[in-house]
Specification:
This protein is an alpha+beta fold. The protein contains 6 helices and 8 strands, in the order E-E-E-E-E-H-H-H-E-E-E-H-H-H. The strands form 2 sheets. It has a 5-stranded mixed β-barrel with strand order 1-2-3-5-4. A 3-stranded antiparallel beta sheet has the order 7-6-8.
Length: 260
């Protein structure tokens, strides 16, 4: 028996009554778990194994033709995040976060802070006055850093300036140069131009202690380049465009000047 706590990222039916769920855990990465009888109307596991549920799972090994599989023995819900479902855009973002983690986190590759990040994002998305765009940017940048794609946010790569008034952040190489050091290139490079305030927000998100990463304010002028950079940076480095992200952009009100 193995007992783990985790968030349900995905679920899919197998046969008429059973269901596979993918669960993000702190120490074992993403686990695929077989839930017997999940499709029954009187199933006792329904709420604790639904999408975005944070639960404690007791698992047993099952031998099958394709090898060993984890099978649910019992489950206890910890938090279901019911409030999340009151917002179409919040559900779209939670689905996007789940797709990113399911794709990027390998089985048996535990990254405890990713589970903690996901839980915090689900918590903030469940609030009525949630700043969904800010939660999205925090998730994207912190996830990129935890996956090993930390951007170089310390100083201008050319002259060493710590906080230039305006700068260009290059997506592929993950570094920035100030406006004075920027040189024209014959080959277009994916980049985002931004003011100093946006750079400060990026630094806060990727470098702050976990308890502080959501504690920042940003002006509308700095907000749009932050959201654009966070999304483009993560999508470039994981090299996957998620379907839930496309849906989010279809239903969410656009930020000023932000086009995808």
């Amino acid at each position: 028996m193995l007992t783990v706590k985790g968030v349900v990222l995905n679920q899919r039916m197998t046969g008429e009554q059973d269901r596979f769920i993918d669960v993000l855990t702190a120490d074992y990465g993403v686990l695929e778990i077989l839930v017997k009888g999940a499709g029954k109307l009187n199933s006792k596991t329904g709420s604790a194994t639904q999408l975005f549920a944070y639960s404690e799972f007791c698992l047993a090994d099952k031998k099958g033709r394709s090898g060993r599989a984890r099978m649910l023995n019992s489950v206890s819900p910890i938090r279901i995040f019911y409030e999340l479902r009151q917002s179409v855009t919040a559900v779209a973002l939670a689905s996007y976060f789940s797709q990113v983690l399911q794709f990027a986190v390998l089985p048996r590759a535990g990254v405890p802070e990713l589970l903690r990040l996901m839980l915090n994002c689900l918590h903030f998305l469940s609030q009525k006055d949630a700043d969904e765009a800010a939660v999205k940017a925090v998730f994207e940048l912190r996830t990129a850093a935890l996956l090993g794609f930390m951007p170089d946010v310390i100083m201008c790569r050319a002259c060493g300036t710590y906080l230039p008034e305006a700068l260009t952040f290059y997506i592929e190489d993950g570094y920035f140069v100030c406006r004075d050091c920027e040189e024209p290139s014959e080959i277009p490079r994916p980049a985002v131009e931004m003011p100093a305030g946006t750079l400060q927000a990026i630094r806060h998100i990727v470098l702050s202690d976990f308890e502080k990463i959501f504690s920042f304010r940003i002006s509308e002028k700095c907000r749009e380049p932050l959201c654009r950079f966070a999304e483009e940076f993560l999508q470039y480095h994981i090299d996957r465009r998620m379907g839930a992200l496309e849906y989010y952009h279809a239903v969410a009100p656009p930020l000023s000047g932000y086009t995808t």
